[in-house]
Amino acid sequence: MDFLNTLLIGITAGSIYSLMAISMVLVWRSTRVVNFAQAGMALLSTYFGYEAVTKLGSFWIALPVAMIGGALFAALVEMILIRLLVKHSSSGPIAGVAPIIATLGLLGVIRASASMIWGGQDVRIIGPVSNDGFTINGTTLVFSPLKLLILITVIILMLILSIVFQKTNIGLALRASAYNPEIARLSGIKVDWVRTLGWALAGAAGAVAGMFQTVNGNGTLSPDSIDFSLLLVSGFIAAVIGGLDSLIGAVIGGLVLGLMISFVLMYISSGLFFIAPFVILLTVLFIRPQGIFGAKAARRA
Amino acid sequence: MHKKQKRDIFLFILGGVVLYFISGMVDELRVYQGASIAVYVIAISSIILLTGYSGQVSLGHGALMAVGAYAAAVARIEFNLPIILCFVVAVLASAIGGALLGAAAARLSGPYLAGTTLALAIGLPSLANQFSVLGGEQGLLFDVGFPPLSLGEEFTQYKWFFWIAGLAALISMWVVKNILSSRYGRTWRAIRGNEVAAQLSGINIARSKILAFTISAGIAGLAGALLSMTIGTVSPSAFPLALSFSLLTGAVISGITTLSGAMIGAVVLVAIPEIADVVAHRIGSSEGVTTNLPGFLVSAILIVTVLFVPDGPVEQHRARSAKKLAHKK
């Protein structure tokens, strides 16, 4: 029974990490920036969602509100911060580290601002359904209606995203701009807007991850909560396991990470909460530095 | 000995004498802040060496400082070593940690490395709770002892901290400066400029990168031990993720390739909480704003610097005057 519980917890947590990894990958594909502020943006969107829940009273209205808020904010960040960054800091000794530093700065600004606005007290988001486990033949599982709902929602979102990417013109433009911006521009794609769109999609995906991470945890939301530190690290690690460039890779990376963390905590020690992801990341990078689904050739200079 | 080298030694000694007189004139709080500035100067110089010269990013230097601090405290408590040896132990321990991390880092580039060190910065301090010898959440006491009596009765504890940290800062700046202008410094700059070209001219890329990480970590460890000396204890909460970010901010404000700018970054880092305090009082704001304003300012300054003064104020000024000079000719 322990085994089944661990498995189901791992898959649920993993699906949330997958969403986070997808947003990292979307940003990386559109602007070649690893966005260390992604968890901060997810945090901000979750606060949007919290405001919507308290004002409108329904989780299912709050979720799209958070997604739209997250998408708008991410688009704004791309249009202001990233475009300025490309303009001012794309040469010189700092060029290689400038995007990393700028997004970290953004993370700090978001966290501090959120603490100033909402930090006074812990706020709660009540999930749409109960997080009490299912009972089968008298034994109670950890797996709950809420976790099932999270899994189904994440799967539906991923299906929508893959249809957008594979079947629509917008998806084609996104793929073309990621593959080669220069050629995409020559074939009439407005690459700048496609980049903004990539960020907006990432913001929306991050918002869902933030909302679910909160209700799947203990329901409280705070700017320095462990949940969001974990989201920050695990989104990145899941994306790297998947190879940073591949959306399928991000999904599988998230699930692998969720399962591994869950099993380590269950069968080795629950004190390894933060060290386990680090060890998993190092192991993956030592075996395959380009990630499991990454292109064979490493990107150089 | 070259003329330039003689001049530099003279400048360093002069710096020491000036610091000595200043420490006698200002009040306790300023002396304490002086000690913090000295600690930050050391930590920032380790980032400048690593990021500005060898081109590797580390978001985990806070964790490496923690390694140094814990090593010094354990050496003091368990083995009762003299204080100067504790600092040596701190440097060695964190250098070993840095070498291990560097071996992993040499295989990674840019964002991969940043993310890995970030995961380390979040993960490592929590590991301290796993071992009872490290004192868990409370941490360990780290006591360097009272100042020697020969310095006089009025010589305060904070002044003693300031002397130790100031001297350590002068020495480590001297060492870093010499390393950067040595063969290794040139090798690192070559790698940062163009890795393939550097490899073709016979540089062992991996070894040089690991060396940079090892030296940088050693210096960071010294800074960590000094930091915990001024606080008096070593605990996981003294080395939060925010510390790693602050160091990066300090290095960027200093100018990521300008070692002599380390002072600017260190002063800004120490001044920000003070400025934030004044601002918060002036606008009469709530507690939430007061506690979060310093963090907000650090991050905002980081973004503004990267966007508008990416090479740092010193370098910017130099470039501008060079341009003017060229114009006149």
Characterize the structure shown.
The complex is a heterodimer of chains A (301) and B (329). Chain A has 301 residues and is mainly alpha-helical. Chain A has one domain (2-287): Orthogonal Bundle (ABC transporter involved in vitamin B12 uptake, BtuC). Chain A contains 11 helices and 4 strands; from the N terminus they run ααααβββααααβααα. A two-stranded antiparallel ribbon of chain A has the order 1-4. In chain A, strands 2-3 form a two-stranded antiparallel sheet. In chain A, β2 and β3 (139-140) form a beta hairpin. In chain A, α2 (38-56) runs antiparallel to α3. Chain A is globular and about 65 Å long. The termini of chain A are far apart. Residues 296-301 of chain A have low confidence and may be disordered. Chain B is an all-alpha fold and 329 residues long. Chain B has a domain at 24-240. In chain B, 76% of the residues lie in helices and 1% in strands. Chain B is built from 13 helices and 2 strands, in the order αααααβααααβαααα. Chain B has helices at residues 3-25, 28-53, 61-78, 83-105, 110-127, 157-180, 183-193, 195-200, 205-231, 241-254, 262-282, 287-308, 313-328; strands at 140-141, 233-234. In chain B, strands 1-2 form a two-stranded antiparallel ribbon. In chain B, α3 runs parallel beside α5 (110-127). The two termini of chain B are 35 Å apart. The mean pLDDT of chain B is 81. At the A-B interface, α3, α4, α9 and α11 of A face α5, α10 and α12 of B.
Can I get a quick summary?
The complex is a heterodimer of chains A (301) and B (329). Chain A is mainly alpha-helical and 301 residues long.
Task: List the defining traits of the structure above.
heterodimer, A: 301 residues, mainly alpha, ABC transporter involved in vitamin B12 uptake, BtuC, two-stranded antiparallel ribbon, 4 strands, globular, disordered C terminus, B: mainly alpha, two-stranded antiparallel sheet, 2 strands, 76% helix
